[in-house]
Amino acid sequence: MDLPIIDLDVYHSNAPTSPAVQEECARAAKALITYGALVLHDSRVSEANNEAFLDLLEDYFAQPSDLLRRDERPSLGYQVGVTLENTEKPKCAVDEPCLRVIERLAPEERPLDISAHSPDPKCRFFWRMGEPAPYATQFPTLNAPNVIPEGPDIRERWTPIMETWGKSMKSAVSGLAEMAAVGMGLPAETFIDAGRYGSYLPSPHLLAPTASDLEKYGTKNTILAGFHTDLNFLTIHGRSRYPGLHIWARNTGRRIAVKIPHPSGTSNGSYLLVQAGKQLEHLTGGLVKAGYHEVIVNDATLAIASQRRQEQPQRPQIRISSTFFWHLSSDYDLAPIASLAAQAKSLRAAQFDLGRDEGDDLEYAPMKVGQQVQNELKHIALLA
Fold it and tell me: What local confidence, expressed as pLDDT, does residue 311 receive?
């Protein structure tokens, strides 16, 4: 099954009230409600910048672990700098509501077994992307500057490449946030204003690539990132060089191998994968559900690894995810928007009538976004 493709160019190149814009915004909202994910086309985003980003991160994570460890900040919940392998735990391994989601899936559509509760073998790097809040935040103690690696041949390239790619991703996903708001019958700035200063404790919006060493963890059916949802508002991915990402569409319960289209000769820019996160689910009262996903080593991963080993033997065999987390502001009052919560209740009833059991009716209690983030980080063993 192919995810809907939403064209951000339509939104940017036409009047906001034009039928073309209104129709594309409605399609964006419907895709998030129906699938929890979509493919976004943005002609401003350069594939060459993504390639430079992937090269940089492969080189960075190919460094010795003692050099990488200098960039860890465990006292900050690993929310800036590097998180090394076998640190972050998939929340679903111990979360009862999540385990019930897995139980409701047909056996052939379930994720790989995460019941061993093992931490993920992936590494991650968090690079903050955003403007500082002009007010005294209730979550100030974990504010921290970005970590710039000191490794040879890394430091000089690092900030320009991270900033260039991060700004491209942030601009694209911010545009989609506007489109989704319009498509849900809200003012275009609704989500943008709520996320102006970002969240995630010390960080605003985050460029957050993961890295999996396929020389160490390249056996078929290895779980690189266990079944989970993202805690933020929207997650956007550029193309990875290695397959292995699976998502679950809300309307089908099917396990979908993600394939991001390549730009054609007549299509400029890039195609990007966008997934809904828990903050969007909370704010819409469950009208949009956070998208479940996993990353594993499968036959397609191994085929590309073999091909790259032959064609580029000098390059590290490291799977980089080109990921960006777009957040709501830490001090934003997170509570369902009434009009969307009412739609969510109607949709849930319709799903039930179709025989699609979505489990217990969840309560989305009002709270600050910063508190929601802290709660989620404790579940995945990144914050005590």
Answer: 97
Residue identified by tokens 């814009």 is: 21
User: What is the distance between the alpha carbons of residues 137 and 135, in angstroms, rounded to a whole number?
Assistant: 6
**Angle ∠(57,242,164) on CA atoms, nearest 5:** 35
Nearest to 288 by CA among 301, 277, 274: 277
DSSP state of 18: S
Rg, the chain, Cα only = 20
Residues 6+ positions from 191 with CB-CB distance below 8 Å: 177, 178, 180, 181, 233, 283, 328
- The per-residue pLDDT for range 185-241, each reduced to its tens digit, is 999 999 998 887 544 433 468 999 999 999 999 999 999 999 999 999 999 999 999
Contact 276, 37 (CB under 8 A): yes
Residue found by looking up tokens 């009538």 in the block: 353
Pairing of strands 270-276, 234-238: antiparallel
Q: Which residues contact 125 (CB under 8 A, 6 or more apart)?
A: 57, 60, 71, 81, 82, 83, 208, 209, 211
d(CA 26, CA 245): 27
Residue 275, CB half-sphere, CA atoms under 13 Å: how many? 26
Distances (CA, A) of 366 to 2, 185, 307: 35, 22, 50
234: left (phi over 0), alpha (psi -120 to 50) or beta: beta
Are the CB atoms for 114 and 90 separated by under 8 Å?
yes
